[in-house]
Amino acid sequence: DGIVFAGHTHCGQVRLPFVGALWVPTSAPRAATCGLYQDADRTLYVTSGVGTSVLPLRLGAPSAWDMVTLKQR
To answer: The whole model's pTM is what?
Structure first.
């Protein structure tokens, strides 16, 4: 049990409606490239971050600072 907090992927940086991210610089499963992802082995949270890389723009993938509150079970 546990959760992994991952560095940002810019959530793809350019995302189109009904298509999603055009490209994400990771080999992770597509569903695990932005936001909360769970499978049988892990829970992962990936942020969109606040900057850009390669292209100096963001489209459909807004910048975000995420606040996570951890509570003891």
So the answer is: 0.75
Sequence-distant (≥ 6) Cβ neighbours of residue 20 within 8 angstroms = 12, 30
Q: What is the pLDDT of residues 1-26, one digit of tens each?
A: 688 888 778 888 899 999 888 888 78
Which two tokens mark 25? 């610089």
Residue carrying structure tokens 């959530």? 11
Domain ranges in the chain? Answer: 4-46
Helix (H, G, I), strand (E, B) or coil at 53: coil
Tokens 């100096």 map to which residue? 56
Residue 66 CA, chain-centre distance (Å), reads 11
Chain centroid, CA 17 distance in Å: 16
Q: Which amino acid, one-letter code, is at 32?
A: A
